[in-house]
Amino acid sequence: MDKYGYRFSFGPWNIHKGADPFGPEVRPGMSFAQKLLLYKELGFDAVQFHDDDAVPDLDDLTPEQIRERARLVRRQLEDHGLFAEFVAPRLWEHPMTIDGAFTANDPKARAYAIERSKRAVDIAQELECDLIVLWLAREGTYMREAKNVGAATHQLLEAINTLLAYDPTIRIAIEPKPNEPMDLAYIPTMGHALALGFQSADPRRVGVLMESAHSILAGLDPADEIGFAMAFGKLWSVHLNDQNGLKFDQDRSFGSVDLRRAFNQVRVLDENRYWEVGVVGLDVKAIRTQPAELATKHLRNSLHMFLRLVALSRSLDRAAVAQLIAARDYEELDWLILSHLMGS
């Protein structure tokens, strides 16, 4: 399989039990060790980690115990020819983060979020990984009057600066999302995340992660969000998936809903030589009706879709595109792209 120089990752949560807010689990669980066996088989190179994916129950462990268990995970990765793409502190499931993490109204909750994030940095160090992803899941409000957005913005900036100072070698990628689980999120788009990073104590070490579904939920085009971030050299990771309208975050297989939208994401990544910058991360979930023995096809399909679209992007008649742009014949350009995608 020609991977065109790209490397691919997914997180252990992408092989899951199929539970949703309205129904129980429908597939048996699988251990982390069992999941690791599937990475190379499916064509993947790297693992995305939440902190407790690497070190379960880390709140009950000392910092040295956390480091020791992370070292064991690094050896597991090495044994399978894999590496860690990033570590993300899970700041949305603990009772201390009900009202937010870095922007919680309770200062004790904010202190917990900072310490939890430092432990995620410790884990990343042991995994020999320099990228920390911040998905600011509960940084927002259910009602505007409950928090002060100006103060919250500075609390987010203070948290980022604290982590930058804690380890001068890490990079931080902010992953924006407009809603869910919070109704009103403070960092909803790529522009908000970039602005926060540019105001940090070391802007060189703060970038972004673009997720397709999150951009779509904000009413934006993922390809434009990719291009905007890459224009500043700030796109350090992606979560490619698909989304059927402005609904809940569906994490559908990449390209399964809107093939042209997927093509344009691949096109802008490839034209900007993303394979030299970062790993192609997938954040896709098997549909609920998929039997357990078939519940990795969403990962296979998404990876193969990306590679098929790379081939289509590179085989596009660039001279014909340029001529149509010069003639301002955008309807013909539209047909050229559609014909190319349909293989005619």
How would you describe what is shown here?
- By secondary structure, the protein is of the alpha/beta class.
- It has one domain (8-342): TIM Barrel (Alpha-Beta Barrel), CATH 3.20.20.150.
- The protein contains 12 helices and 10 strands.
- The strands form 2 sheets. Strands 3-2-1-10-9-8-6-4 form an 8-stranded parallel sheet.
- Helix 1 (32-42) links the parallel strand 1 and strand 2.
- Helix 9 (259-271) crosses helix 10.
- The longest helix is centred in the middle third of the chain and has 20 residues, at 107-126.
- It starts with 7 loop residues before the first strand and ends with a helix.
- The mean pLDDT is 97.
Highest CATH level, the class: Alpha Beta
Please identify which CATH superfamily we are dealing with: Divalent-metal-dependent TIM barrel enzymes
**Low-pLDDT windows of residues:** none
Mean pLDDT: 97
Report the total helices.
12
Largest sheet: 8 strands, parallel
Number of domains as seen in the coordinates: 1
Please count the beta strands (DSSP E, at least 2 residues each).
10
Q: Between the first and last Cα atoms, what is the distance in angstroms?
A: 24 Å
Provide keyphrases for this structure:
344 residues; alpha/beta; TIM Barrel; eight-stranded parallel beta sheet; two-stranded antiparallel ribbon; 12 helices; 10 strands; globular
